[in-house]
Amino acid sequence: MDITIHTSVLPHDDPDASLAFYRDVLGFEVRSDVGTGTMRWITVGPPGGSGTCILLAPPAADPGITDDERRTIAEMMAKGTYGWIMLATKDLDGTFERLQAGDAEVIQEPTEQPYGVRDCAFRDPAGNQIRIQELR
Question: What is the pTM of this model?
Answer without folding.
Answer: 0.90
